[in-house]
TrEMBL record:
Pfam family, one: AA_permease_2
Gene Ontology annotations for the cellular component aspect, listed alphabetically: membrane
The organism's place on the tree of life at top rank: Eukaryota
UniProt main location, coarse: membrane
Name the UniProt record assigns to this protein: Amino acid transporter
């Protein structure tokens, strides 16, 4: 069997080097053995099935159409370097842990019950339809592309158009009331950061992907490269369709305002229904990724009741208990929303902050080893080669930049309801985690690296 020394990470050659050999699936067994993990899942996913618009209210309030356009432009570039760095890491450690190695009055309980219903559907698909999930992902890809053209062409043809100069050069503050327009633009960019995330989700189903050390990073790279042009085209059409930014921002979902301004009520509802279906498909994929990462953390004794949570049902080919815990979290969050939308929003405001923190820590660790101890990097079949250091530096820089701005509220001098409570929640979680580590976690949790080949003996 090849050792890490025999197939060391390529730190001098060109990027995207493949050195998988001809043994195909056998490499998956070698990777799992090297990382001290037991292969428990059937590898149903290939590169296509593992490759799978949006709320831009904040961007229009803080920056206007020009702020939205240019924010997307630089964020797409910045996120690209994170994707490259994470793709290489996925080749180093292809495990489920990912980088962790119309006139209608709504009520809170309507939203909560809808979320629980969607969660129930998503959980059922991921548990009892696990063996067909790869096939479903292929269907999702086809529907994703088809729906894109339906929505894009419909809005482009039917909507009134604003002036190009207005779209690309008119930066405005439409209610954020920040003292500096540039500051408003920086705050407004946060939704764009969220909208370009998730290409790394495939990393968390690596143990169910064939030839994962090559397939997973390749999928992450091409998922980003193929979806970004689609998203950019949709954004351009969307921006030209906003003929009145101040009016559009009176709707919490400006895209719905565009549809209502362009189509009949029935037409707007039809397009909205298509987008709802897309959201449901995304939820299924995200649930698969989240439950697998929970499984991976439990497998390393990082969760309560790890023996129960990491159990894999051999007949269903899924860690069903981790799926049920993930669904339980969805229910709890929905109930919190009924009681206090403020508390709910405070919790979910952590999304970008937490992701960027994990990106920065992971990329930073790889960068340090790449510079100081390159010989200790794991074997890799999808390598950044000589571009590794600059790519990691740029990825780390962008992750830190995004982390900082993700804490800011949409409005200057916000009320309690408008405040971005991510800074309080994040600090609290880190404090509690620190205490837990000192008191108990350090005695039972060693992390995935400790059982990798060559590490057991220190």
């Amino acid at each position: 069997m090849d050792t890490p020394r025999e197939k060391q990470a390529d730190v001098t050659g060109g990027p995207f080097v493949s050195d998988a050999g001809s043994d195909g699936y056998n490499q998956d067994d070698k990777d799992m053995l090297r990382m001290g993990k037991k292969q428990e899942f059937v590898r149903n996913f290939n590169w296509i099935s593992s490759f799978v618009a949006l709320n831009n209210f904040q961007m229009l309030v803080d920056g206007g159409t020009a702020g939205m356009f240019w924010s997307y432009t630089w964020i797409i570039v910045g996120q690209f370097f994170i994707v490259l760095s994470l793709a290489e890491m996925a080749s180093m450690a292809p495990t489920a842990g990912g980088q962790y190695h119309p006139d209608f009055v709504t009520h809170n309980y309507y939203d909560a019950l809808t979320a629980i219903l969607i969660g129930s559907i998503v959980t059922s698909v991921n548990v009892w339809g696990a063996k067909k999930l790869a096939l479903l992902e292929n269907v999702f890809v086809a529907l994703h592309v088809a729906a894109f053209f339906v929505v894009l062409i419909t809005v482009a043809v039917t909507s009134p158009k604003t002036d190009a100069k207005e779209v690309f050069t008119h930066f405005t503050d439409n209610g954020g009331n920040y003292p500096l327009l540039g500051l408003a633009v920086m705050v407004g960019q946060v939704p764009a950061m969220w909208n370009v995330l998730a290409s790394d989700a495939v990393a968390h189903i690596s143990e169910e992907v064939q030839n994962a050390s090559i397939t997973t990073p390749k999928t992450m790279f091409w998922a980003y490269m193929m979806n970004i042009p689609l998203a950019f085209a949709m954004m351009i059409v969307f921006l030209f369709a906003i003929t009145d930014v101040s009016e559009a921002t009176t709707a919490f979902f400006p895209f719905v305002w565009v549809l209502q301004n362009s189509l009949s009520t029935a037409g707007a509802q039809a397009i909205t229904a298509i987008m709802f279906i897309l959201v449901l498909m995304i939820a299924i994929s995200c649930f698969a990724s989240t439950s697998r990462q929970l499984f991976a953390f439990a497998r390393d004794d990082g969760m309560p009741f790890p023996t129960w949570m990491k159990k894999v049902n051999p007949k269903l080919n899924v860690a069903a208990n981790s799926c049920f815990v993930t669904f339980g979290y969805t229910v709890v969050m929905s109930l919190i929303y009924i009681g206090s939308p403020l508390a709910f929003n405070a919790i979910i405001s952590l999304a970008i902050v937490a992701l960027m923190a994990t990106y920065a820590i992971s990329i930073g660790c790889v960068l340090w080893r790449r510079i100081v101890h390159p010989e200790t990097l794991p074997p890799v079949f999808w390598s950044l080669g000589k571009w590794g250091v600059p790519v990691n530096i740029l990825g780390l820089t962008y992750a830190s930049f995004a982390f900082f701005w993700a804490f800011w509220p949409i409005y200057w001098k916000p009320t309690a309801e408008e405040m971005n409570w991510a800074v309080v929640i994040f600090a609290g979680v880190m404090f509690i985690s620190g205490i837990n580590w000192v008191l108990s976690a350090r005695k039972m949790y060693t992390g995935p690296v400790a059982i990798c080949e060559g590490r057991q003996d220190g």
